Amino acid sequence: MCAAALAALTAVPAEARQPEHRAPHWELTDTSAPAVRFRGLSAVSRNTAWLAGTQGTVLRTTDGGANWRDVSPPGAGELQFRDIEAFDARRAVVLAIGEGEASRVYRTDDGGATWTESFRNTDERAFYDCLTFFDRRHGLAMSDPVDGKFRILSTGDGGRSWKVLPNEGMPAALPGEAGFAASGQCLVASGRKDVWLATGGGARARVLHSADRGLTWTATDSPIPAGDPARGVFALAFRDRAHGLAVGGDYRPDQASPQAAARTADAGRTWRPADRPPPSYRSGVAWLPHSRTVALAVGPTGTDLTTDGGLTWRTVDTGSYDTVDCTPDLACWAAGERGRAARLEG
């Protein structure tokens, strides 16, 4: 089953379902990479998806996960890839995270047969977490605060070159505030100019919004708990420029994560907590395509579904996933630890 049928089926009580209807579930695919944790995922279509993970690993499938091809950049084995944005089966941009020169960006135009390093961070104070694209040419990457403000990197040529944007329009960061490179979803765009940045680690978990491709920003507190380096907003998803979801919590497995989800209907100017949030920390979230109310959230302890726009969530799977992404042709993918990659079936 693809994402198109998920909302319809889950709206039917379990006792009323026909025997031949299996509940929607993640169908694991064989990546042959059990030692790799995939926190970067870019789902292009029902057939094509890209993964990015530890040990400098990038995988690509063009047959719905039946086969995954290792297309990792040469010499990248020491890097930690945490985000990947693909435009199609041939063109993709991948981000490596870390302090100083460990933060890098690579681009491919031939399905990963060759890669070009288009950015290498030379500032030891910077640590890049996430990247996003508005379209095939314009995109941003974000770093943890430098000189008291989040740093924004910009491209206007599809990731072939990058420049640091001026920070005059960026609000001051809170003490200890940073982004979480947990799922490639701490920086997300919707439409031609709107972009949102998720934070944690400070006294408050905030969401920053820019309506001009990262030149000026406003910061809003979220109801997701913070006050600790392990707590905050870990992922965002917007189905249009107004309606968004935020998930997070405390990533430590021995710590509770109450109020781990929130929603907005005004582009992030205000956030409301979920009435029934996921039961624990969630690191990734995605709207189902062409839906105004259905979304998925994932984390190490399971997958949760909302059918009312983030007001209430319920657990539909207990497998471990770090990130999730859905496609315009009605497919959803997830990825995570121990080489896990799956597509939503039923």
Q: How would you describe this structure to a colleague?
A:
The protein is mainly beta and 346 residues long. The chain is globular. The N and C termini lie close together (4 Å).
Largest sheet: 8 strands, antiparallel
Broad shape: globular
H/E element sequence: HEEEEEEEEEEEEEEEEEEEEEEEEEEEE
Structural Rg: 19 Å
Low-pLDDT sequence parts: 8-21
SSE class: mainly beta
Chain-averaged pLDDT:
94
Can you describe this structure in just a few lines?
Helix content is 2%, strand content 42%. The chain has 346 residues and is mostly beta strands.
Secondary-structure blueprint:
Elements: H1 3-10, E1 25-29, E2 38-43, E3 49-53, E4 57-61, E5 69-70, E6 80-86, E7 92-99, E8 104-108, E9 116-120, E10 127-133, E11 139-146, E12 149-155, E13 163-164, E14 187-190, E15 194-198, E16 206-210, E17 218-221, E18 231-238, E19 244-250, E20 261-264, E21 272-273, E22 284-287, E23 295-299, E24 302-306, E25 314-317, E26 323-327, E27 331-335, E28 341-345
Antiparallel strand pairs: 1-28, 2-3, 3-4, 4-5, 6-7, 7-8, 7-10, 8-9, 10-11, 11-12, 12-13, 14-15, 15-16, 16-17, 18-19, 19-20, 20-21, 22-23, 23-24, 24-25, 26-27, 27-28
